Fold this protein.
Amino acid sequence: MNVSDTPAREAGQDFIRDIVTADREAGRVGEVVTRFPPEPNGYLHIGHAKSICLNFGVAQEFGGHCNLRFDDTNPTREEQEFIDAIERDVRWLGFDWGGKAVHASDYFEQLYDWAIHLIRDGKAYVDDQSQEEMRASRGTLTEPGRESPWRNRAVEENLDLFARMRAGEFPNGARVLRAKIDMASGNINLRDPVLYRILHASHPRTGTAWCIYPSYDFAHGQSDAIEGVTHSLCTLEFADHRPLYDWLIDNLPVPSRPRQYEFARLNLTYTLLSKRVLTELVRGGHVTGWDDPRMPTIAGLRRRGVPPEAIRDFIGRIGVARADSLVDVAMLEASIREVLNRIAPRRMAVLRPLKVVIENYPEGEGELLDAVNNPEDPTAGSRAVRFARELYVERDDFMETPEKKFFRLFPGNEVRLRYAYFVTCREVVKDGAGNVIELRCTYDPATRGGETPPDGRKVKATLHWVSARDAVPAEVRLYNPLFTTPEPEPGDFAASLNPDSCEALNGCMLEPSIAAGNEPGPMQFERLGYFFRDADSKPGLPVFNRVVGLRDSYARQAARSGG
Ligand code: ATP
Ligand code: MG
């Protein structure tokens, strides 16, 4: 892409974009190059979406490009399944890395050569200490570390040992290659950090070619430099690694000089965004898989029915800052609701059916009534829904003895059935145990289409319904947060797992056009929320997920506190 063709975006949206704008204006960078560097040891989650939107977004806005780079330096935890899932999810979010994804493993040979470069310069050494010994001599935040007895090995000996590490002569953990920086540094990351470790493990891409693997710190900045990354954007926990990042770039003959900038991670209430926890949820069978609709993974959100534009909208709204914060999950829901309100066709479905018989409607007859597909979108048109003598309404829409302010169905009360007629509840039918099993009602033919009758009579409630004969039974799954506390403890997440995070309802009744399956995206079930067909659907038994309810608790809360 030609950089000069692209108008520079306005500064001021966030500090990262301000930095990039300033670098461009001062001529410090030409083409803006960023990267999104996931480790393929799990599926991507909504926190990664923040990094994806930032890295790909900045590249797009400044006419540069963003690499998708797999940070695949730890073969014991990485799998092809995760690599494939990550590519699928980034694409689905709407981003393109142009051509092929890149991998830290593409650079293993170059990284090895650079390790030798450091050894030759006397800036790296092979350490024979055990992991425990290294840990014990590392010092603390207040005490300096102690130098390794192997720190002053001769260059030739280091070169020999490092080559033999590569050749596979030593078992795991026998030796490491360390940078020789400063064991007394106030920054623990500079106390002779490990650059290479021995790991006899097969790698998803390089197979058994290597039995030593670079550390994150050694691979990351150098990969950035190889790719000409100009702005290496990462989360705050890497701020303390930046001096090491810069030290390595300064001490190696790298082809470019990337700069690292840190931004705050996304944290969400009622949610844990640590891959370790997400992995345990999957392995421990607490969820059905990485794409369980309750999971905060991109795959889970997609399966649940969240559109990618809602995720991008949410990420745009929360912005990018340097201070850690906790975002209310209701904000994510608000973005989902807003997008779906615009695009989702309306349908009628009854989740907990109660039968209604319209006594004055002729038996065996029916009629087609016109129902609006989306009041927010006039181009969406309308459809026909069948009205007949036997219907289902929502059990919750009836109370035998109405509470105060209950305006829906109760004996003697009249309500509107949406798009159909005014009906009045005349009689309640119960089973032997006293449960209400049916309502006997009458309708007013003068209210066809749900219109106010000539006498101007008003009703206070409009209910959704489906024709009993036409309805298609379905399972509908309602979701609640996976955790019961706003800030679950990652170390003890099991303690706050919500036992009621999935409520599966059977015998729900759908308007037949829902079950026909020709609606590719989520639908609004009137008065109930937004729903999306789940992959568990079988012929004759559709399964729907509730994406999100209709109630905007976030907006109401904001209105209350913001005035
Ligand atoms: P975890 O700490 O859960 O293992 P990670 O950060 O190590 O996750 P990576 O695959 O290394 O996972 O992440 C790839 C990129 O996504 C990194 O640049 C990381 O900073 C960023 N990232 C991960 N989690 C979040 C988050 N919650 N918010 C914003 N960015 C994130
Ligand atoms: Mg990481």
